[in-house]
Amino acid sequence: MEDVVTLQHVNKAYKDFALKDISFSVKKGYITGFIGPNGAGKTTTIKLMLNLLEADSGSINVFGHNYLGHVNDIKQRIGFIYADHHLYGHLTIEKMKRVLAPFYKNWDDQVFAEYVERLQLPWTKKIGHLSKGMGTKLSIAIALSHHADLIILDEPTSGLDPISRREILELLTEVIQDEEKTVFFSTHITTDLEQIADYITFIDQGSIVFSESKESITERYYLVRGANELLDKDIRSLFVQVRQTSVGFEGLTNQAELVRRLMEDHVVMERASLEDIMVYTVGKRKEE
Fold first, then answer.
1. Domain contains 279
2. Distance set, CA 157 to CA 33, 143, 164, 279 (Å)
């Protein structure tokens, strides 16, 4: 399976924050979700992937190359969508297209027109007057119209209504159907990733917690509920974090098979959501 992006032992230090020994890959033809709490290092990681920052150490390869000597070729093949687009608000969509098209050697006017029509974007309306959802759709249309092989999205559905979010998720799912395009999707809305992601990379405090297939994550992580008297030192060690009340405990485990063998007759188990995994993992770290 081909890796479109590979980060190996990447470090980047600031005065009050650091990315520490970051290693993960983004698989070609799939959607990789990127999750983590505020301040975890998601935006810094994306900037490194886009060559907007330089790593202190480690290596970053995109399409099999590092940026040195390949920066223009690599950036031609990337489409980047921010939470808030950075397009010229005083221009109409038609005029914005005329500004952007010459920068991309693979720009396709026909594809752009098809997406503008499909997404019901108003050609003659100034971009500054578009809703947040329309601005995001326009950014995606631009990325797809220069035939980008890698689409990187940073909180694209944040603040959007459910209908706009669903349209964008459906569009991203379609994008990867030919298995040639790749999506890297950073978001706080973990339910979006549960719908469309194939892989999940979880970062916390500048370190990777895990980076693996969504299927393997959902098979391993479970929420477990039971009586407090079931908890002893050995049982507690099976959980990422345990929360207790007067009526019982709830805990997150990443050893679901072992918990099932030892406790199945005495507890209730259900698959953990990505939000559960993130909340309990960060909660454990804060306890420590």
1. no
2. 13, 16, 8, 20
**267-to-55, 251, 259 alpha-carbon distances in Å:** 46, 11, 9
* Pair (151, 202) in one structural domain: yes
User: Does residue 280 form part of some domain?
Assistant: no
Q: Scanning the structure block, which residue is given the tokens 């907007």?
A: 52
- The one-character DSSP state at 36 is -
Q: Residue 251 pairs with which residues in a beta bridge?
A: 224, 242
Same domain, 161 and 244: no
Same-domain check for residues 194 and 174 = yes
Claim to verify: residue 21 and residue 108 sit in the same structural domain: yes
Q: What predicted TM-score, i.e. pTM, was given to this entire model?
A: 0.91
Task: Supply the range of the domain harboring residue 256.
Answer: 222-271
Q: Are 104 and 68 in contact (CB under 8 A)?
A: no
Encode pLDDT of 67-97 as tens digits: 998 999 999 999 998 766 678 889 999 999 9
Task: Please state, in angstroms and rounded to a whole number, the distance separating the CA atoms of residues 78 and 52.
Answer: 13
- Which long-range CB contacts under 8 A does 173-178 form with residues at least 24 apart? 173/31, 175/144, 175/151, 176/29, 176/30, 176/31, 178/29
Question: What whole-number distance in Å separates Cα of residue 277 and Cα of residue 284?
Answer: 11
Residue 278 near residue 202 (C-beta atoms within 8 A) = yes
State how far the alpha carbon of 190 is from the alpha carbons of 195, 196, 272, in Å. Answer: 9, 10, 12
Work out the pLDDT band at 288, boundaries 50, 70, 90: low
Q: What is the CATH number of the domain that holds 99?
A: 3.40.50.300
Number of domains in the chain: 2
For 152-206, write each residue's pLDDT tens digit. 999 888 778 888 888 889 988 988 888 889 999 999 889 999 999 999 999 999 9
